[in-house]
Amino acid sequence: MERRRMTMPGVWFDELSVGQRFDHPIRRTVTDTDNLLFTTMTHNPASLHLDAEAMKDSEFGQIIVNSCFTLSLMVGVSVGDTTLGTAVANLGWDEVRFPKPVFIGDTLNIVTEVLELRDSKSRPGAGIVTFRHEAWNQRGELVASCKRSGLQRKKPAD
């Protein structure tokens, strides 16, 4: 039986270069349902994310979107252009920052940059890539950023 090689939409490790940027074409407006489901599914009872009436009197005057949802969305949007089908494992997060809050109705634009590439010592067919992900709202404010390291497959030999 002949095995077909699938075309991967993501980028192979050896197709990446330090400084390469991905301005992801998918923009995403955060909804109340996104925030509510994520917050309750992770058992976070903070009124900051769930109680609109209580938050009316806060310094922000409204609910703030759960920052862990923002982090997940930021990285998730990047997958199709960078690692879909080529990732082996997520290795870690570093320098996670949320300089401005995200509110219900904010539309996020995600940008990814390749910061570092190195061959894996334990897996000859893979390398370790470090990305910087950034999320910007419709007002041009940086609302989230992080460094993410992952193990990514190299392009198979023909």
Please render the helix and strand layout as text.
Elements: E1 21-23, E2 28-29, H1 32-41, H2 47-50, H3 52-55, H4 67-82, E3 87-97, E4 107-119, E5 126-136, E6 142-153
Antiparallel strand pairs: 1-4, 2-4, 3-6, 4-5, 5-6
Attribute tags:
alpha+beta, Thiol Ester Dehydrase, Chain A, 6-stranded antiparallel beta sheet, 22% helix, elongated
Short note summarizing the structure:
By secondary structure, the protein is an alpha+beta fold. Helices cover 22% and strands 33% of the residues.
Description:
The model has no long low-confidence stretch (mean pLDDT 93). Strands 1, 2, 3, 4, 5 and 6 form a 6-stranded antiparallel β-sheet that branches. 22% of the residues lie in helices and 33% in strands. It contains 4 helices and 6 strands; from the N terminus they run ββααααββββ. It starts with 20 loop residues before the first strand and ends in a 5-residue tail after the last strand. The protein is of the alpha+beta class and 158 residues long. It has helices at residues 32-41, 47-50, 52-55, 67-82; strands at 21-23, 28-29, 87-97, 107-119, 126-136, 142-153. Strand 4 (107-119) and strand 5 (126-136) form a beta hairpin. It is elongated. It has a domain at 13-29 and 66-153: Hotdog Thioesterase (Thiol Ester Dehydrase, Chain A, Roll), CATH 3.10.129.
Question: Which CATH top level class of the domain at 13-29 and 66-153 fits?
Answer: Alpha Beta
Q: Care to count the β-strands?
A: 6
CATH superfamily of the domain at 13-29 and 66-153: Hotdog Thioesterase
Strand content: 25-35%
Percent range for helical residues?
10-25%
* Gyration radius over CA: 18 Å
Q: What structural class results from the helix and strand content?
A: alpha+beta
Counting DSSP H or I runs of 4 or more residues, the number of helices is 4
Determine the CATH topology of the domain at 13-29 and 66-153. Thiol Ester Dehydrase, Chain A
**Segments where pLDDT lies below 50 for 5+ residues?**
none
Largest sheet: 6 strands, antiparallel
Oligomer: single chain
